[in-house]
Amino acid sequence: MPTFIETQFPIARLSAEAYKERKANNGQTLTRLGKWWGRKPLILVRASILGMLMPASNDAKKDREIFLKILTMDDDGTWQRCKGEIPAAAWREAATPEVQAEFFGARGLKQGLSDEDKEALFTRIWEALSPEQQQALDAQRMRPIPDRAEFDALSYAERLVHCKRPENIDGPTSTIWVDINTHLGTTATCLAELIDQLGQRTFGHTPRVGDSFCGGGSIPFEAARIGCEAFASDLNPVAGLLTWSSLNLLGGSQDVQEDVTRVQAAALTAADQQVTAWGIEHNEQGERADAYLYCVEVKPEGCDYFIPLAPSWLIGEKSRVVARWQRVPGSDRLKPDIAVVSEDELALYKGKKGATVDDSRVIDPFDANRSWSIEALRGPDGLRLWSNDDIVPRVGDVFQERLYCIRWVKTVIRNGKPKEIRRYAAPDSADLLRDAKVQSLLRERFNEWQRKGFIPSKSIPEQGAETDRLFRERGWTHWHHLFTPRQLLTHGLLAEQSFALARSKAAIVGCLLGLGRIANWDSRGSAWMWHGSNEKGDQTFNNQALNTLVSYSGRGLEKIGPTFRLLDGASPIKVANTGSTAVVDARDLTNACDLWITDPPYADAVNYHELGDFFLAWYDKQLTNAFPEWTPDARAQLAVRGNGDDFRRSMVEIYKNLARHMPDHGLQMVMFTHKDPAVWADLGMILWAAGLKATAAWTISTETEAAGIKKGDYVQGTVCLVLRKRVANEPGFLDEVYPLVEDEVKRQIASMQALDEGGEPNFNDADYQLAAYAAALKVLTQYGNLDGKDVEHEVFAVRAKGEKSDFQAVIERALGIACDTLIPRGLENAWRDLSLVERYYLRSLDIESRGERRKGMYEELARGFGVTDIKPLLKSDKANGTRVASASALAASVLVAVGHDGAGIAGQTGTNVGRGRGRVAAAGPHPFAASPLRHLLFAVRETAVNDNSPEPGRQYLRDTFGQSYWGRREGFVNLLEWLAALGNAEGMGEWVADSEAARMLAGRLRNDHA
């Protein structure tokens, strides 16, 4: 019997919910535990598990209605979740005096705060409150749309702006549960009871959900929260720690959370007392430093002074503070001048005034015409490699390091209220002495702290995609090299105090994760954020890379505190079953689960084992105190990565193992996001060889517009493949498979387009591409073999360069079908008469008019249409600034077309083409050059250059096509009217003149008579 998710899935509403959850940033449930890459939205996990357990009935409409009611995603549910906003005045009242003074004015929030800034501010205020204070603040919410009819008239995405997330309410009302139970034949009063009853009915016990790539823990955490028995495993102990913590700290009791909070608070207090006694953060004016700004400096050959490096010397937009550099007579070191500037000068610094690094070159701050390549500065033999004992560069190293600015804070009483005063200043001689003392204090403790695991002692693995740059760009060989001496001293001190106080496993884990969090936000990889009102250091992993920076920041101990305190403001989250977490290779799992839900590695999209080592270096020795059974190593040699035979072989073994450890009527879901058809072909063959068949595929929009690795050429959707064991091994034949794939691709795209037409969720072209790949897998994996070829042999067959498997050929054909199915609105009648290259040009214009600028999407379209050379059709081929050539731009491009009578129209640069009567010889013209659409675009250009008189354009078409012009005229009018609308689209300014010319020409052709 099929399940709900195998027959339908509310992808539009789920996409909107997932987007809302992603946009919550720090307000997401699991992000407070620590950094991980690619956590899937909890609402997607919840919906997937429910969809895999809920049976499909004969009434699909009622099934959908009930499914949405359970998740409070129906109309009544969203109204129930519409709790409104907490007024700014209430936030102000709840904030500390310091926060009030910094962010609030007499009438509410100060101007200039972005939505992200507000979210961070509200989270900061919320987390500082007691549970009782949080409840009182929450009670002050004001429903912004008190009228139900007005609320229901909004689109679903618009409603969600005013709604809590489903995870943050108790679930459906008792009245709604009556309707749910009546339809499903259950007796549940909450989601956990429903999940248990559905599991008992299908499997004879509470459903067991497993994830063998648990990562940040979304899947096991949400499975446990809604009542499943959750099993989580990952090869990486950092992932295991995060997942265990989600279940046992966030999902722990009040006593557990209080124990963690008490230990962390006591450790911070002890560390603060020690730092104060050392005198390394306080000055003689009674101020305390909370931010340190560093930069790298170099002395290129031919330059008699060290050049401090930074892409910008703007320190604070709101505070209007910049750094200027001055020559010092008799010294080869420049002197920083930290100054408050006027708005006019601030604008110049926003424009990178004085920047000393640009496009991998060092620029002389006193002579912008003089620059040096950073790569050349490293020398032919590369940089000196640091030793374990190094904590700062040695004399003679290419890259030196200097502290150039400190932010000092002091609390004063004004009008009877405390106010925090901030001041930026260049370090003076006393500050430099304090900095030297920091190094001395660290060296006294360095060996002991490394031995006990209070600071990192691990070396950085060589020959890693991410770690190699640390060797090459800085000469760093050990993980502690990514931290300044001050950072190592304060972090190490906090670790020493923490593990002297922590007795329980929960407290040890809480302190470990706290150390991981401050490592992320306080390292040589923490860029200084000067923009907006939040002047602070950024996190090291603001993307999925180990970036080496030329300017960076550090935090004082008081600024570290909120980041270290893991559970401040948290309330225990009710987890029905805590589940279990293991750090083990997925090939060795022996745990049986009814449902396996996995988000596997994507052919090295993220190098988890390398990035995770950054945190593992801080956990290292203390991790074994909490988990003696875990291996405190990422075991990179076992990590599933790459895209060759080793990757495929590992994945086949893993999914075969998961299939062995599930009942015959169990299900799997594989969540997958990738735009390369070869990778999709690999995934398909992997699942095929593992004995699984796809029974459904749904594309959910899971990513925000700037989500780390997806920045630039990215897809916004995740395909959720639903799989069962392939019990029968029926043979398949390619000549029968192709039409089935075509039907499935068209069905999948039609369902997504129907949702798009309703405004939800606005899939982009990359998402349609994913859907096409998934639809092909759904067809292909039903068969035990294709044309008699053995599955395992096909997966690991050695192929010549460029040779494609039958599987990949079908996948790529699916893309072609998708491209041909996605007809731009308004061109339905003309489409079938167009050649592939003409269709490519118009589809490219279509996606450009909808804001698509990623070069990869234009290349993927070309692949789908079989166009091998797209450069002549593009005005720009920048990675994230691709533009299609307009009619006027094409007239000046190097395209040669041969007309019906052999006459050529040339677009040679600098040539006045005239009306195409001149004959130009051409070797190998571009396929687009001879197309009717190319002639039509030239006619548009002729109209435009003749002051929008359509007669030259009409005459050109009549001369070019002769008698066939009359048969083509109606199609030309259709195309011209479509081109005429392009100039109205946002961002299509280059088409305004040509669109007007197309409109004039269309009118002339429409009224043309023989």
TrEMBL record:
InterPro entries: Antiphage_assoc (IPR049953), DUF1156 (IPR009537), SAM-dependent_MTases_sf (IPR029063). Residues 8-70 form the DUF1156 domain. Gene3D superfamilies: Vaccinia Virus protein VP39. It holds the Pfam family DUF1156. This is Anti-phage-associated DUF1156 domain-containing protein. It comes from the Bacteria. SUPFAM superfamilies: S-adenosyl-L-methionine-dependent methyltransferases (SSF53335).
